[in-house]
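So, does this match?
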Amino acid sequence: MQTPTRSVTLIGAPLEEGSGRRGAAMGPAALRIAGVDQTLIDLGYDVADAGDVQVVPARDLPNHPKAHHLRTVGAFTRALEASTYEAAAAGRFPLILGGDHSLSMGTVSGMARHAAKQGRPLFVLWLDAHSDFNTPATSPSGNIHGMPVAFFCGQAELADILPRDRPIVDPRNVFQVGIRSVDAPERELIKQHGVNVFDMRSIDEQGVASIMNGILGTVAAANGLLHVSLDVDFLDPDLAPGVGTTVPGGATFREAHLIMEMLCDSGLVSSLDLVELNPFLDDRGKSARVLVELTASLFGRRIFDRPTRAA
């Protein structure tokens, strides 16, 4: 694996308030129980577990009628922006264990600051059933886990969570793969701002390899950093049921692993989110194990290295 670092920092983000239901806060513990740390150690990485981010609600933020639990999500955003930036600035690979997808408001913002310090653009690969480009004005639910992409692209300033002059991600540098559930107003925002969307029909018609080659070629040509954000619901629910936002028709086991293997080969990935794992809805840890397997592929494990399990 052509990676810039062999050092990984695990950052737990027990955040569930952005999702509108309980359970995702248990995600970091489930991923640790599934062996994410030992898996990376076995692959030769120096792994440091920074533990879980602990916050108290940010009292300087308002209660927002169309952005639920803003004070808690805002506090996590600030803490994760700082911890992700600090890990990357120290030459380590931030691997964030979530937690609902609102955590990416902080992690991507932290990586955007790191990329700006290096004078390089940040690209985001969003592996998800949802585009998450809603704003408080367009969101039908008010749940902030549907708003992170709009936030880190500077299009959803919910409040003064982070400085308004912070580095943001150019929406044209966001590549969303596996999309199959988009609200109508959100669709217009995506089109307006130039987000690159490859829905499941695109995968069916073009194939994962063709799509990924195009994305990776764009990132490499720009000398960019690439943040990957992997939502459990990117996968088909039969493969990974442990998520509160299941949408039928998701990526297959091989499609997901091929994406991770191609990312590994590219050497472009600088950070990773694993999000929306809800162990309460899972089947005996099945989804957590799948996420750890996919992480192993991203970090260099090949099919020849996989243990064979008895049927």
The longest helix spans residues 70-89. The chain has a mean pLDDT of 94. The chain has one domain: 7-305.
